[in-house]
Automatic annotation (TrEMBL):
Main localization, broad class: membrane
Entry superkingdom: Bacteria
PANTHER family: ARGININE EXPORTER PROTEIN ARGO, LYSE FAMILY TRANSLOCATOR
Keywords in alphabetical order: Cell membrane, Membrane, Transmembrane, Transmembrane helix
Localization terms from the record: Cell membrane
Protein source organism: Vibrio palustris
InterPro entries: LeuE-type
Name the record gives this protein: Threonine efflux protein
Length: 208
């Protein structure tokens, strides 16, 4: 397989993985819907930096060691699950607030944490290591030079961010936003519940 074919294969696989619902996508959705486009973009950027972290150690070979370290994986998985539950709890709690949670003043201070939320959720997901080991072991060859590897890493981050930007734009257009505002409390509780369930699942799967 030539480099161009390998790159296109990686990007196609990663695009499908990005679109599939998961902790990263749910957190970006929550930040976008309740804090606006800027917060969604910041959160998505945090996820992409987390991807850079995972890809860096995966390509260095460290991921193989981490993947076989049961205790380390369990610890990271439990931390990641706990953080998702915490975010879910905050989301559900805010939905019961008597204040109008679509008012920008409530979320002004929390916008600065959007990037950190995306970064933490992604980094504290040990399954990312397994994902990149599997992806890279199939596609990447020893003959590839450093420039080609850097291009692969940048392209994966670009695909991830392009998907987030597309999603963020679509859910913040006026027509959709009006429907969202009419069901703001219900949506917040649904997203909060999803984050909590995913967090609980992560904890259970890594304990047992």
């Amino acid at each position: 397989m030539g480099f161009t074919s390998a790159l296109l294969s990686i990007l196609a696989i990663h695009l499908m993985a990005s679109i599939s619902p998961g902790p990263d996508f749910v957190v970006v959705s929550q930040k976008t819907l309740f804090q606006g486009r800027k917060a969604g973009i910041l959160c998505g950027s945090g996820v992409c930096i987390g991807l850079l972290f995972h890809m860096s150690y995966s390509l260095s070979g460290l991921a193989t060691i981490l993947a076989h370290s049961t205790l380390f994986s369990q610890g990271i998985g439990i931390l990641g699950g706990s953080y998702l539950i915490y975010l879910g709890y905050k989301s559900i709690k805010n939905s019961f607030s008597k204040k109008n949670i679509v008012n920008d003043t409530i979320y002004t201070n929390s916008k600065s944490s959007a990037f950190l939320s995306g970064l933490i959720v992604n980094i504290l997901n040990p399954k990312a290591a397994i994902y990149f080991i599997s992806l890279f072991s199939i596609i990447i060859k020893p003959s590839m030079n450093i420039e080609q590897l850097i291009l692969i890493v940048i392209s994966i981050m670009a695909v991830q961010m392009a998907w987030y930007l597309t999603f963020i734009y679509l859910v913040t257009v006026p027509m959709f936003k009006e429907k969202f505002d009419n069901n703001v409390y219900l949506i917040d509780r649904i997203l909060g519940s999803l984050m909590s369930i995913m967090g609980l699942y992560m904890i259970i799967s890594y304990i047992f």
